[in-house]
Amino acid sequence: MWESSWNARLRELSKQCLFFEALTVYRQMLRRGHSPNAFTFPFALKSCAALSLPLTGSLLHCHVLKTGCEPEPFVQTALVSMYCKCCLVDDARKVFDENPLSRKLTVCYNALIAGHTSNSRFSDAVLLFRRMREAGVAVNSVTMLGLVPGCAAPVYLRLGMCLHGSSVKCGFDIDSSVTNCLLTMYVKCGSLDHARKLFDAMPEKGLITWNAMISGYAQNGLATHVLSLYKEMESFGVCPDPVTLVGVLSSCTHLGAQGIGREVERRIESCGFGSNPYLNNALVNMYARCGNLVKAHTIFDAMPQKSLVSWTAIIGGYGLHGQGEVALELFDKMVMTRIRPDKTVFVTVLSACSHAGLTDRGLEYFAAMEKRYGLQPGPEHYSCMVDLLGRAGRLKEAKELIESMLVNPDGAVWGALLGACKIYKNVELAELAFEHVVELEPTNIGYYVLLSNIYSDAKNLEGVLKVRVMMRERKLKKEPGFSYVECKGTVHVFLAGDRTHRQTEEIYRMLDELENLMMEPGVSDENDQGRNEEQLVHSEKLAIAFALLNTAPGTEIVVIKNLRVCGDCHLFIKLVSRIVDRQFVVRDATRFHHFRNGVCSCKDYW
DNA sequence: ATAGGGTTAG
């Protein structure tokens, strides 16, 4: 057999994703004394990447060097990609840096950029992207696909929007993969309105587009949106796949909608997806959380491969419904099948103990968590433990546990103690817990009510009054409304009626002008009218005027508010965008604590 | 002939 026939076989197998077989063929080829060439390596390396075999991969790298195929651009790119997919980003980097040729290739840059992004080295990816552009190497839509997923966190939203902008400018958005990727980016940033806008604007929605939007809603807890979109998808004649149904099932879980869940299960059967592990996990979770433990357990038992996620779902189900003993039994069984527990499964185990009143066993498992499994407990574990001790009346121990914490307790930890004080009528400790909890979650009204009830149980009318005054005070004062707007890498903060900004004069002049333009006929609809009487200028109006003054036409303006946007602001924004032809996105700042410091870090990356 | 990418569960 000639080299070319070996290569053809390799190609065929790799095309069919039979990567293990492809590597076997590669080995046979060597054994029969045939030398691999530049057409051999890309397939062999791709197989190593797909199977994540770093050792075989570096052995292949040696063969590449020995046969002198190194200068081949296809081989270089395959090497870079292989190392990245095996999580050896630095080795990929070395191949890239040592071959000047690579640094002229778009594909090679693309592979390396995507590799850095997917190995959580996004800032390096952005640096590479910058270097790529400085070197004059052409950027294409695949470059975007490597970069955009890195913006999947609110901090990077602005950068993601920049990438969106350049994609549109360069016409990369014709490629639906790029748009799907951007859509997912917005979803992961929690910017669902934006994702939806992109979704609605897509002329041809493929299955992946529907899935991205459906899972996006599911991940953000918008269960009703998921169900209505799923219906819409079916009415368009698009057939769901396992990814779609996972999103739908997770929403059924949220809503406790076992009926719809059952329908989905039938659909799974009829489509032949019955063996999909993701779907089975989602089904177990749905039935377990809806209280149908028999059904959940039946599906769980039938699963040939039970992952940590499957075990967590079933354990959580029993724990949630007060069957702590069963939950613990299952946990022990899981450990016996040599599955290493993680932090998440411990949350369900500890909360199972507290639901069932298994105080000492809970303490045991909590101790084992760190000692046996080397898992640092986080605040979510401590709040379970405080709840556990507190419900058992061991308030002193609960308090001492909080004091011994290495991580900072969050509101839920002190809140659990406060809840225990209610059960055991301990006013003194309740006051202490409240002091902390109110500092961490000053706007959570539930804790005020709890303390008030504790005072009321103790017939401490003075206390009740004190809390009531406090609540009224807070309500009266509220947190002052403020808005952020990002401009050139900095976040500008405005309070309502603010006059401290150095561009105040210009801003107010701009607002006047806008207000006048709004009076023009044709700008406001009839039903938009008659709402001009507020005295204090809202913070977001100031932010918007500032942004209009300081950003380029055509770019989108993101306004971040710390309070729920009232009807007025929506109207204002609607009218302004009509007048100046700019796009606005309003976001809720409560999801963006990192903006609280007033600075955004995207400057560093662009 | 050969390289780079988008959606999923606790």
Automatic annotation (TrEMBL):
A Pfam family it matches: E_motif
Organism for this UniProt entry: Malus domestica
Family named by the database record: Belongs to the PPR family. PCMP-H subfamily.
Cross-referenced NCBIfam families: PPR
InterPro entries tied to this protein: DYW_dom (IPR032867), E_motif (IPR046848), PPR_At4g14850-like_plant (IPR046960), PPR_rpt (IPR002885), TPR-like_helical_dom_sf (IPR011990)
PROSITE patterns given in the database record: PPR
Protein keywords: Repeat
Domain called DYW: residue spans: 526-606
PPR repeats: 2-36, 105-139, 175-205, 206-240, 307-341
SUPFAM superfamilies in UniProt: TPR-like
Presence of the UniProt keyword Cell inner membrane in the record: no
Presence of keyword rRNA-binding: no
GO biological process: RNA modification
GO MF entries: RNA binding; zinc ion binding
UniProt protein name: DYW domain-containing protein
